[in-house]
Design goal:
Length: 434
């Protein structure tokens, strides 16, 4: 059956909306989705289709920003022209676009679109890949120092593809098969994740927070890579477990499920606002064994009281987020080598603060959603040099004990990323206190 192609008239106000949102995202320290939501809240009259157009175009432009600017041969802040160029190259769905292009700029736009499709690239490999995949040179260069060019290129390409919608089944309330069936009944087909025993990948992206299954606390949205991190703790019912950088509590809730709601689970963070998000999530998930504490004002009493007591401590450290660029493409333009250096020091201090909590024979799991060796392997080597009482154990073996076969691991660390596992990029190390 022939499909009918429609022509979509792109209104100048849509272009203006994209430009306004993009300018704000590039200027603001807030993540792109927050800025976008703020914009939509201010423009309540925008229809569903207008919103979809603006959101998709903004995200597409953030993914290809540098290559667009390179092809446009204009200042990167000529966002109107870059938006038209993006739409000329990528379009919107299957529609033929009728773009609001002035006759005098049509030629320039078509020439720029040709340059986008066949860019003239410099000889320097970091700059060439940086332009092709719209990433900063310093980031690509850091990867080229430790990986072959083909591997780096596969990584760059995978980080530019949109991420799937993945959920973690709340095993306190249901098993994976039941939740898959419930989602299907509500119109959302899914398939099991290949590695995590409790994950489902939705066949299509959708707003699933309105489903009854979600409201009943049967699942949480969580990337499969993130699910594997909590499994590395092998947290069990009755244990003392600490989630040292709990944030909104994605991993805390998973730890609670692994503990079957039994034992003591501490969720710490320095940002009260992040921990506050966790409260309603624990209620929905039927989690009752979590104690939330905002550091640092009570760090001394709470953290010191736990010295030598924890069976497992998870440090899901603040990081560059270079492993989650497919979800937060704007981060590529906000993170700098100076910021990474500051994060490395922060991570070191957090590890130092939490290591004493681990009991003899207990474990410390360090994780980031970074793909930079300085925040990952190098951080752990620094820690092990200072702490001979800890030993690195192979993460793949920890997962194998739980029935998870895990390919592509060449050493004791866990490394997953879009190009190899289809997950977000995560790094983890499991350290046992002897
Ligand atoms: C990667 S996020 C955690 C994400 C969370 N574990 C999850 O799975 O949803 C890192 C968190 O570390 C917190 N953080 C930063 N410095 C900290 C510190 N010194 N002690 C504890 N938490 C800290 C940040 O506020 C942030 O929420």
């Amino acid at each position: 059956m022939a499909t009918e192609t429609t022509t979509l008239r792109v209104y100048p106000v849509w272009i203006e909306a994209v430009v306004t949102v993009l300018r704000e995202i590039l200027r603001s320290p807030l993540p792109a989705d927050t800025v976008l939501q703020q914009f939509f809240r201010k423009h309540r009259k925008m229809g569903k289709r207008d919103r979809a157009f603006v959101a998709e175009t903004v995200y597409g432009m953030l993914r290809h920003y540098r290559r667009l600017a390179h092809a446009a041969r204009r200042r990167a802040d000529d966002l109107r022209f870059l938006t038209l160029l993006y739409l000329e190259v990528f379009g919107f769905g299957d529609a033929i676009l009728d773009l609001p292009v002035r006759p005098a700029e049509r030629g320039a736009l078509e020439a720029a679109a040709r340059r986008f499709r066949e860019p003239d690239l410099p000889d320097d490999p970091a700059a060439a890949l940086g332009i092709l995949y719209s990433l900063p040179d310093w980031l690509v260069a850091a990867w080229l120092e430790v990986l072959p060019r083909e591997t780096v290129e596969a990584r760059c390409a995978a980080l530019k593809a949109p991420a799937p919608l993945t959920v973690r089944v709340n095993t306190l309330k249901a098993d994976r098969g039941t939740v898959q069936q419930r989602l299907l009944e509500e119109g959302f087909p899914s398939r099991p994740t290949p590695y995590s025993p409790v994950g489902l990948i939705l066949e299509e992206k959708a707003f699933i927070f309105r489903t009854r299954a979600f409201q009943e606390g049967l699942f949480e949205v969580q990337d499969e890579g993130s699910q594997l991190i909590s499994l590395l703790t092998e947290a069990r019912p009755g244990q003392v477990v600490v989630d040292g950088c709990a944030g909104g509590g994605g991993k805390t809730l998973h730890l609670a499920a692994l503990m079957e709601g039994k034992g003591r689970l501490y969720a710490f963070d320095i940002h009260e606002a992040r921990l506050r998000e966790l409260r309603p999530r624990t209620r929905r998930a039927d989690v009752h064994n979590v104690r939330l504490h905002v550091l640092p004002h009570n760090r001394a009493s709470i953290v010191r009281r736990l010295y030598g007591k924890a069976d497992a401590v998870l440090v899901d450290a603040p990081c560059s987020g270079t492993g989650v660029l497919r979800r937060n493409p704007d981060a590529a333009w906000k993170i700098t080598p100076e910021r990474v250096a500051a994060l490395v020091e922060q991570q070191r201090q957090i590890l130092e603060a939490y290591a004493p909590l681990v009991r003899p024979g207990g474990r410390l799991v360090y994780a980031t959603c970074s793909l930079l060796p300085a925040e990952n392997e190098q951080q752990i080597h620094t820690f092990l040099n200072a702490h001979p009482e800890f030993t690195l154990i192979p993460a793949a073996e920890v997962l194998a004990r739980q029935g998870i076969a895990f390919p592509h691991q060449t050493d004791a660390f866990l490394r997953v990323e879009p190009a190899t596992h289809g997950t977000d990029g995560f790094f983890a190390a499991v350290l046992v206190q002897s």
